[in-house]
Amino acid sequence: MESKKNKTDINLVVCDMAGTTIEEDNLVYKTLQRAIHKAGYDFSLEQVLAQGAGKEKKQAIESIISAYAGPTPQERIEAIFDDFLASLDDTYRTAVIRPQPYAEEFFARLRQRGIRVVLNTGYNRSTAEALLTKLGWTIGNTIDALVTADDVANNRPHPDMILHAMHLFGIPSGATVAKIGDSTIDIQEGKNAGCSLNIGVTTGAHTWEQLATAQPELIANSLREVLPILTN
Questions:
Q1: Class of domain 2-24+98-231
Q2: Least confident piece of the model among 32-41, 47-56, 69-78, 193-202
Q3: For the chain, which terminus, N or C, has the lower number of CB atoms within 10 Å?
Q4: Sequence spans of domains, the chain
Q5: How far apart are CA 218 and CA 165, in angstroms?
């Protein structure tokens, strides 16, 4: 764990879902990779993660293809996205989805101290809510709110999802907000929202070295390492 700060007063923590608080072995990005391959492209999972991690999934498809094959007609992006959503529904129906180690205790310990916990995600609301149901997580009991790509006009790295979460709880400034995610775009999102702590975790899409390029205040190997920074 490396930190540029060791003390702050935080009253809202916004956490990404897959790779950060949920363990699903990059299932979403493997499904995304398959949908792109069906359209005639051949990109490795590492390439898909490098360009697509953390983004709203239609935006991710466009970013991945543009980075490695150049501009693509919007109707082709739409067709790949529709195929991806259908495949993801089928995949999640039978997949084993687990909380990241310590995630549920992490939520509980924060909420016991009066710190709000919000999950935000590049998934649409239907997918995100299906994941919560599969895990048995509920709003008001496990977490305080869920904000998805469907809820805002602009997705990551724009700050809209975090600003929406702040608005839900009447928090006027990012000075008391922490953002936690497993991708560089999570860190960029937090910085754009003015969050005082932007924390990368190495449990998901991006490596320590990749996360470091976004200059987070902290890079940790687990949520357990993060908790003392938020609650001291």
A1: alpha beta
A2: 47-56
A3: C
A4: 2-24+98-231, 27-94
A5: 22
